Input
Amino acid sequence: MSSIPLTLNLVEGSVSFSFSPKAARELKAATDQLMERLKIVAAKPIPGCGKASPQPPLEYRYTGEVFLEVFCNPNIWPTPFAAKVLLTVRNINIRVTTEAELTRIIDDINQYLDQVG
Output
């Protein structure tokens, strides 16, 4: 386990917790896939060809010293830059559930990965 905590910046405040570099790479891969899904949804379908097919949501879960859950339905956001995720961080003593901006979470994960190498 890395001694550097992952800090996720929220709309108001932030939350920091122990997180492994391996889990951070998995979360980065999941958010990268979500960005691709958001781009598909944001692309307007060609007139006369029907609607774009619905994209599956991001449902990421991590269990370590804390439980982390990240959820996002890409079908409800007009652009990847408007998207928000529902974020839950909990352990046996505390639970935080809030919305966070997807682009900010991606930046936080990238910064963490740069720190841990």
Observations:
- The helical segments are 21-42, 102-116.
